[in-house]
Amino acid sequence: MSISGNQMELREEDIRKHYAAAAAMLEGFDHTPRIAKPAVEAKTPERSSGLGTRRRFRSTTPGLVTRSSARPEGVHLIARIEAADDDDPLTSPLQATLQHALRRALAISLAMGEAYADVSGLADLKRANLAGSLDGARKGEFTELLAAEALIAAHVFANAAAYLLAPHGSEAQAEVGEAEELLTDNAPLALHGALWELDQKLAQHGTDDVHLIAATAAYAEQLMEKAALRAQTAPRLEGFTAAAWRVETDDLTISGFEPATKAKSTTLTMAFKKPHEVVGNHIAKHQALRLSKMLMAYDFDRRLNPFAEMGGFIFTFMGDGKPGTGKTTLIQMMAGLIHDYCQNAGYAFRYQNFGIDNIDSYQGKSGQNAKSFIQNVIDPGVIGFGTIDDIDQIAGKRGDRQSSAGQQEVTAVFMEAFAGANTVVRGNCTFGMFSNYPENVDDALRQRAGARFLVDGPQTREDYIDILTLLMGKNHEIPLGDHDLYGAQEIKQAVARSFEAHNRPQEPGLAEVFGRVHDQIGELDSLAKLGTYLKAIQQADERFTGRAIKNITDAVKVRAMDFELPDDWMENPELFLFQDYDTKSAMIAELRVPITIDMVVQEINRYADSEFRYADKSDEAAIEAMVRDFGRQEEAKRRYLEGKG
């Protein structure tokens, strides 16, 4: 076992020595289920012709009545896999791939358990227990360490199996249900329980080679989730979670109870847009450009972005505006920029959109789809960009009877992923939520968007000339006239004008609050006066909570990082991207600008304007709906009385 930084290597020879034991487990073993109930009964052969099998023995001994007396049934995974295609007596390539992947995953799990036993002291306790010399005072510690090893063995087996099978997956999916037979007495029993349950799942869902892979991968995901959940409260796991474990041959890194994924790029088929093709939307375009370059500062060795550590990194943002104002164009521009930067640097880039087609009528499936989307984008081995277009149709408001169960599941998953207790912002990915009707998004979910991109489309005369010229194309000879084409789209000038517009609020409700506070305390030139203004906003809108203040301060930190990373840093990766983490941090720190009072006031107004805009629209929509209801009631009453008369 070699050690590098906080990464430890599982040597190939330590893994391969467990191949024989792993193959024996796949060949066959007996297991009595203790938690799960068999979904497929094993056929027990008759002992002799005409003599049936006996009924199950039920103990009458006190204390043993409740213990399971089920017969241990034989688990033969290799035979189960090969039986998927009865018409072909030979093992198919996919069946062989699955057998090899399971053997490899079991061997990695056994090697990991052995390594954990060495670093945690469990190996010494095992030897003492075998020799009958285990101190009674250490039996509690011994039991806890065995349980920890069992959780590690189960999770690593599932993690490695899912990782090794990922390249062989297809569009086929299997709904295998929850993993139940997770036994924590010791590592061998944990693996036996997992293999027994996998055998049950394959018997139900492994109808052909493609579904064998799908069912195994689905069960591995469920087992990982169950083991990780159990590990949250289990003791003695520090020896495993304190370091990352590397399997060089498979390019597999085991980082505690986090799922490992292959750092592969997604193939993008969208039509990318250049920045000048995004007309108007100056602040949104400006922040998207900055964020695209911020992502590229991510350090794959440290697995952290200097911007995330210093402050100013946008993990989630909300893009809202009227239909046709350019939200899709903004997504195409940002995805195109990141894609080009990653190609130049040789980084894996993963873009994924979560759409309405991911909402499923099958209970729990929508939540699984949302979790899969989140996991794919936050994979620390890639630069990730995830978008949720029309989020008001996808994530349902809590308590809204018109929202489906699937939409409610998606809301719960996004709430936890974007600002939950287990959320870790590494700075390698960002999520954009886009909507024409953000007032219909659940308040708490909307407030988890750290930045607001107002996508308002073209605004000025120059903007409309630019967008007309752009969309007309080149198949004409109409003269341009007296106009500096795309001159109004120069980012620096346009952004400066846009930010200055927020020195005072835009929404009438907020403007009234601002004017009243300004009359009482004068210019907002101190933290005390800014706090007074924030309290006044909260009194006007009770949804303006501590999370709103955090989002505002994060936006201010973004403004402090409001500098252009030089283009040659992106074009020549040696200058910046390939530098070590500390060097990149120092280079960024030199460009940072100080925070000013104007920045803070502008960001308060920008954020509060958006909340007041959402609240006003939401209240107005609710009032209009009630007016329609009252009108229908009055008309129904009139017709009813006419009918009686």
From TrEMBL:
SUPFAM superfamilies: P-loop containing nucleoside triphosphate hydrolases (SSF52540)
Pfam families: AAA
Coiled coil: none
Domain of life: Bacteria
All copies of domain ATPase AAA-type core, residue ranges: 321-454
Transmembrane segments: none
Protein name, per record: ATPase-like protein
Organism the protein comes from: Phaeobacter piscinae
